[in-house]
Specification:
The chain is α+β, with helices and mostly antiparallel strands. Helices cover about 10% and strands about 25% of the residues.
């Protein structure tokens, strides 16, 4: 749907940033899709192919949700399961201010999700992705009815 440029916060989220860059440098992301789209909330991608086959990943990383960064519109954060240290390749872009996803305590329900970057160009593309029609596919909710493919991810130094 168009290019998205993100700035990475390597000083505040070094583990998350380096993890993301490992996947970028390995060519992991091209061919994956934005598999979860919740209008007004988030778009999530980086883990599934267009047929919703989950790609094998590296081991999970440390959760850096305590880094003081907030899940505000346009920020990029590490996706994970309810397990605190379960994040691997998946990430999401916030479509609105989602401060309830920020670190608020040390129990699993309020530990939070680590922000590691922000969109600096292409937020209009993010919003277009955030408006696609979704449904249930392969037992997953909020999946775009037409796959929204990640064609390329490159690192600019």
């Amino acid at each position: 749907m168009g290019p998205i440029t993100i700035e990475l916060f390597k000083d505040q989220a070094p583990v998350s940033t380096e993890n993301f860059l490992h996947y970028v440098r390995d060519g992991f992301y091209p061919g994956t899709v934005w598999h979860r789209v919740v209008p007004g909330y988030v778009i999530q991608g980086g883990g599934f192919t267009a047929d919703l086959a989950e790609k094998p990943t590296r081991p999970p990383i440390q959760n850096e949700a305590t880094n003081g960064l907030s899940n505000r519109r346009g920020t990029v954060a590490v996706a994970r399961t309810r397990t605190l240290r379960s994040a691997t390749s998946q990430f999401y872009v916030n479509l609105s201010d989602n401060t309830r996803l920020d670190h608020q305590g040390f129990s699993p329900d309020v530990f939070g999700y680590a922000v590691f970057g922000r969109v600096i160009a292409g937020m209009d593309v993010v919003d277009r992705i955030g408006a696609v029609k979704t449904g249930v596919r392969n037992g997953m909710e909020d999946v775009p009815l037409e796959p929204v493919l990640i064609k390329a991810v490159t690192e600019q130094k």
